[in-house]
Specification:
alpha/beta; 9-stranded mixed beta sheet; elongated; disordered N terminus
């Protein structure tokens, strides 16, 4: 039995998530600490940061400490018709920390579903993303967007790729003011500009967002979002799963459903994922894929419950005390549900609630 009070926030998350993912048929994925650097060079836009720690192998090949897990999973999977590969992981990655802005060994957890995917698979991964956040905090939100819908609207408004790139950045920032100015620069009509500002405000309760989007999207265009939303209605976490079209991720690699998760007390998103069919195609694969990653280093920002003591009991004994007496007393204290530190002298900085002194018994 593991006492969860003794675990750090990230350790608690890993401990609980393994059990959660296994219940849905996901198998653990293990990998080496490093990959050939070329894998990351070819896909650097997919990475959180393109700054990678490298070294030369004994054969002269340039290797890298892995900054990402998804690329390795894709590399080590196969395209098998009518099949799905479901894996989960908790691996150390080596990248620039968002909190310290220095290289850091970061524990990252997540899962990937690769193969001939359907609506159920998308629902399952989104649902597991929400359940993952719920393991961390009751106060969380999972924001979902659909890049297919976003790209269709942008293409209808202005076919210029430069316009789409700039507009996406402003939508992600929820910057409606500059989005209107951008439309003016590209000669976009006021009516179409209103469509884009509607996208900026398209966030919140799922049914309300769908109703708002119905004015600018066809029924077919919203069919996948509607079907997903209806399935999520049955989830006990449904009210924490919202639609938000400012969630963009990397449109060069992601397609379809994308999402990002936030928990109260952490300023940045702790979870990100979605469908990355474009990434698969770029790597010469025909399968579909969806997954997410949980950035466990950010959990350090959550307040850790602490009693303020290093041990409940300081057990003092002398060189004359029988070791069996010390062992028996330690076991007795632990059996009572308390923590104990057995010492021959009082440590200068040790914090403890009470003292049990076996030296008195010895000197009696």
């Amino acid at each position: 039995m593991i006492d969860e009070k003794l675990l750090k926030n990230e350790e608690k998350a890993i401990f609980n998530l393994r059990s959660l993912y296994r219940r849905y048929g996901y198998s653990p994925f293990k990998m080496s600490k490093f990959e050939e650097y070329d894998l990351y060079v070819r896909n650097k836009d997919f990475l959180v940061s393109d700054r990678v720690i490298t070294f030369n192998d004994t054969n002269g090949k340039l290797m890298a400490l892995k900054p990402d897990v998804t690329l390795s999973i894709i590399k080590n999977s196969e395209d098998i018709p009518n099949s799905k590969k479901k894996v989960f992981y908790n691996e150390n990655v080596y990248r620039i920390s968002k909190s310290t802005h220095r290289y850091k060994e970061i524990m990252q957890a997540g899962l990937e579903c690769i193969g001939d995917l359907d609506l159920y698979d998308i629902f399952e991964v989104v649902s597991l993303a929400a359940q993952t956040l719920a393991q961390i905090s009751d106060s969380f939100v999972l924001n979902i967007s659909h890049l297919g819908v976003l790209q269709k609207i942008l293409g209808d408004i202005c076919p210029d790729a430069a316009f789409a790139e700039k507009a996406i950045r402003l939508i992600e920032e929820k910057n409606g003011h500059d989005l209107v100015k951008l439309c003016g620069e590209y000669g976009v009509s006021e009516e179409k500009a209103e469509t884009l500002t509607l996208l900026v405000g398209a966030s919140g309760e799922r049914k309300k967002v769908l109703e708002a989007l119905a004015a600018v999207c066809s029924e077919d265009g919203l069919s996948e979002l509607k079907a997903l939303s209806e399935m999520l209605d049955a989830s006990p976490l449904s009210d924490k799963i919202l639609f938000d079209f400012s969630v963009v991720n990397n449109m060069n690699y992601y397609s379809g459903i994308v999402f990002r998760g936030f928990v109260d007390g952490i300023c940045d998103g702790v979870l990100a994922g979605g469908q990355y069919d474009k990434m698969m195609q770029k790597m010469g694969r025909s399968s579909n894929a969806i997954g997410f990653a949980l950035y466990l280093d950010l959990l350090e920002q959550l307040k850790q419950e602490s009693s303020g003591y290093d041990a409940d009991v300081l057990l003092l004994y002398s060189s004359d005390t029988d070791s069996r007496t010390v062992a028996a007393e330690v076991n007795k204290i632990i059996a009572s549900g308390r923590t104990v530190s057995a010492q021959r002298e009082i440590p200068e900085k040790l914090k403890y609630r009470e003292t049990v002194d076996l030296r008195r018994d010895c000197n009696a």
